């Protein structure tokens, strides 16, 4: 392409260390005529096709290595034996940036199951889309989730409903009532396609101060707002993963986050997978639950 502008070394570093793992534009714009042209997609990032493959493969390799480390833990092996899945289940993850992340919890989770249950024929579908609010997710839920007739749906939302924009710091981006209604609609919609209960992953807290240092973002997130969303999720039917949002430490530790203090690091994602495996293997699905701690030590 004669007009191709190659990314600078500084831009490549930013892509590798932060941006690229969340910029899965093939999922965000599936109807664009050229979206299946890998070379064209790579050029949008200022990369060659080979460079894009190399960077994305690095994230996938990180997730697989994290899965292999998890499987060295005898507790994890025991949890896997008690998971409620059938060998041919289709498992869909429906969420925001933490789900869409190329080395995120769902990638690690699927690697864990593919390695440890080789005789199963699971189908894994990542329906995460970075920075989604529950309202944005609801608009695409039929296309990305329900139409695929999943056996299990794992939901991970809330962080971006709680944004407080710099132009309007006195309110969250979505009022709590709208988040409540959106999650209720998702819950009811899942019941139309599967008898298995939904699996809810609560939004973790943020690291105060780190978000302020990110030039890319012009918003704030307060844990008091996230705590209210966790309260809503903890009252849902189904499996509730980490109802108190304590899987990254209490108070949360920076080690479990990327430099923005919002998105989980690889270590943070591993903690989410541990909490997910533990709860699915050790608990019964809840019928309208109160908040209680349900995490591995």
Descriptive labels:
five-stranded parallel β-sheet; 297 residues; Rossmann fold; 11 helices; alpha/beta; 42% helix
Strand order of the largest sheet: 2-1-3-5-7
- Termini gap: 54 Å
Estimate the strand proportion.
5-15%
Number of DSSP strand runs:
7
Low-confidence stretches: 289-294
CATH architecture annotation name: 3-Layer(aba) Sandwich
Q: What general form does the structure show?
A: globular
Largest β sheet strand count, sense and barrel closure: 5 strands, parallel
CATH top-level class:
Alpha Beta
Q: Helix-strand pattern, N to C?
A: HHHHHEHHEHEEHEEHEH
CATH topology: Rossmann fold
The helix content, as a percent range, equals: 40-55%
Helix/strand class: alpha/beta
Radius of gyration: 19 Å
Report the average pLDDT across residues.
Answer: 92
> Count the helices. How many?
11
Query: What's the structural domain tally?
Result: 1
CATH superfamily heading = SGNH hydrolase
Task: Please provide a written account of the structure.
This protein is 42% helix and 9% strand. By secondary structure, it is an alpha/beta fold. It has a five-stranded parallel β-sheet with strand order 2-1-3-5-7, with helices on both faces. Helix 3 (38-44) packs across helix 4 (49-70), helix 4 (49-70) packs across helix 7 (105-116) and helix 9 (176-191) packs parallel to helix 10. It starts with 8 loop residues before the first helix and ends in a 15-residue tail after the last helix.
